[in-house]
Automatic annotation (TrEMBL):
NCBIfam families linked: PRK07231.1
Annotated PANTHER family: DEHYDROGENASE/REDUCTASE (SDR FAMILY) MEMBER 4, DEHYDROGENASE_REDUCTASE 4
Higher taxonomy: Bacteria, Bacillati, Actinomycetota, Actinomycetes, Catenulisporales
Protein name: SDR family oxidoreductase
Family affiliation: Belongs to the short-chain dehydrogenases/reductases (SDR) family.
UniProt xrefs under InterPro entries: NAD(P)-bd_dom_sf, SDR_fam
Protein's organism: Catenulispora yoronensis
Length: 258
């Protein structure tokens, strides 16, 4: 089945690498026009060029914006609307994890930073998307929001406890916003397992290239695995799905892993 997003406009936070870049590239490949954001313009410009090399003719606009900054969210959504006329898909992918260790040992600045980016950020970006592009008072109401949670938000994970707390709260936020913004906007979440990205390097580095991982499908996740799920949730095939969490973890949770 050929899934298309022709005529759609998407904004992907954390789009300079890893899962965010894979989602943006997949959307562009399927016909969407895309705005990608992250903190540093240099990484975004590289990402945009890589997407254009993969998808000749792709319309990709990089915009430097800190995911935890409300003004940056406002400006990025305004850019998407001013450039492309609307915004149909918001992917809240950007995340941070400054504390790796027990929850009881976290200091307040690191806790606050994690909440700012991983939980408050998706709320603020969704508020801006709703107010400027998707809500009933906008020119083209409707759309969908996809939040990147984590399997760490669904189970105990000792070194990722604070990160997991914010991702668990993001799932609850997803469900509440799905109810509040319906029927105009669908809001869903994806909970990835361990994916081979720079962000998760400390969790997979050192394993042999052909290592069999101790979960059902025996391999590390690839950013494209998550991008495929994000494509489905953004498409009309998911038009009767909202408030849900799609776990994409290679069967890790059913075998007790991450």
């Amino acid at each position: 089945m050929d899934i298309r997003l022709d005529g759609k406009v998407a904004l992907v936070t954390g789009g300079s690498r890893g899962i965010g870049q894979a989602i943006a590239a997949t959307y562009a490949e399927c016909g969407a026009r895309v705005v990608i954001t992250s903190r540093k313009i240099e990484g975004l410009e590289r990402s945009a060029e890589e997407i254009r090399s993969r998808v000749p003719g792709a319309e990709v606009v990089p915009f430097a914006a800190h995911a935890g900054d409300p003004q940056a969210a406002r400006d990025a959504v305004a850019l998407a609307v001013d450039t492309f006329g609307t915004l149909d898909i918001l992917v809240n992918n950007a995340a941070t994890n400054p504390h790796f260790g027990n929850v009881v040992g976290v200091d307040v600045p690191r806790f606050d930073k994690t909440v700012e980016v991983n939980l408050r950020g998706p709320l603020v970006w969704t508020q801006e998307a709703w107010g400027q592009a998707m809500g009933p008072d906008t020119a083209h109401p409707g759309g969908c929001v996809i939040n990147l949670s984590s399997v760490s938000g669904l189970q105990f994970n000792d070194p990722l406890g604070v990160y997991g707390m914010t991702k668990a709260a993001l799932i609850h936020q997803t469900k509440h916003l799905a109810g509040e913004l319906a029927p105009a906007v669908r809001v869903n979440a994806i909970a990835p397992g361990l994916v081979k990205t720079e962000f998760a390097r400390s969790l997979w580095e050192g394993a042999a290239p052909d290592a069999k991982y101790p979960w059902a499908l025996e391999r590390l996740g690839d950013p494209q695995d998550i991008a495929n799920a994000a494509l489905f949730l953004a498409s009309d095939l998911a038009s009767w799905i909202t408030g849900e969490v799609l776990v994409v973890d290679g069967g890790a949770m059913i075998k007790g892993g991450i």
